[in-house]
Amino acid sequence: MNRIPLIDHNATTADRKALLDSIHAAFGTTPNMFRAVANSPAALKSMWSAFGALGSGVIAPKLGEQIAVAVADRNACEYCLSAHTALGRKAGASAEEMRNAQAGESADTKTQAALRFALKLVDDRGQLSDADVQALRAVGYGDEEIVEILAHVALNLFTNYINVAFAVPVDFPAVKLRRAV
Q: What pLDDT, in 10s, does the model give residues 67-94?
């Protein structure tokens, strides 16, 4: 059972309703995660604007979703793992690519480097070396892409923590965690 109420966009304040209506329009439904975050209009506005900004960034949507599933599995977030697996498939990733990304793996060298970097950020709490950044540059990532990879990780940490801490019910097709919890 969730630990915080899920806000109904039809029975809330105008500021929450406006944000939830735009989310509903984008997804065709209002995912439970956003309904939980709507307990704070400031947090919801922050999260939704971050999704919008990164969605129009230089990192391809497919890679963004692969990063999301790797981070979700590492943080044992079933909600984000399920949501981003579905979104990754919509972004053109195969089921195998999403399963591999969940484990932090990819057959593509450039994607593999990004996933390795993302998981190092999570595991080492942002404590990187020059070599970690150089490894991304060596496979062709520029500074804009490198910063966006970090931004994707940060946004996914936010969403993972919301869903895990508040036990938000999964409302996407369930995907099993690979990581032992």
A: 999 999 999 999 999 999 999 999 999 9
Q: Which two tokens stand for residue 73?
A: 């599995």
Handedness of CA 160, 28, 2, 46 (dihedral sign): positive
Cβ atoms of 31 and 83 closer than 8 Å? yes
Provide, for the chain, the percentages of residues in helix, strand and coil under a 3-state DSSP scheme, each rounded to the nearest 5.
Answer: 65, 0, 35
Q: 155 φ, ψ to 5°?
A: -65, -40
Residue identified by tokens 């999964």 is 170
Two structure tokens written together for 153: 């990780």
pLDDT score recorded for residue 180: 46
Q: What is the mean pLDDT of the chain?
A: 96
Measure Cα distances from 6 to 3, 37, 161, 171 in Å: 9, 8, 16, 12
What Rg do the C-alpha atoms of the chain give, in angstroms?
Answer: 16
Task: Show the DSSP H helices in 28-125 as ranges.
Answer: 32-37, 41-55, 61-74, 78-90, 95-102, 109-123
Sign of the alpha-carbon dihedral angle for 112, 116, 117, 118: positive
Residue 63 class from Cβ within 10 Å (0-12 exposed, 13-18 middle, 19+ buried)?
A: buried
